[in-house]
Give the backbone structure.
Amino acid sequence: MNAHDLREKKEAELRQELSGLLREQFNLRMQRGVGQLTTPHDIRRVRRDIARIKTVLNEKKKGSEAS
């Protein structure tokens, strides 16, 4: 997932994807706590994807305020 693809999506789609990633992040944290996490790099990937989506949402919000 890259920022260019995210900028093409609507705000509702981004919020839906964000909630899915937050749920995935929670599940990965639980797996890590129990010791069942097989791919630790997924935590980093999900965290960065969440940051990308939040950045694009903030850009869209500031863009709509400016106009």
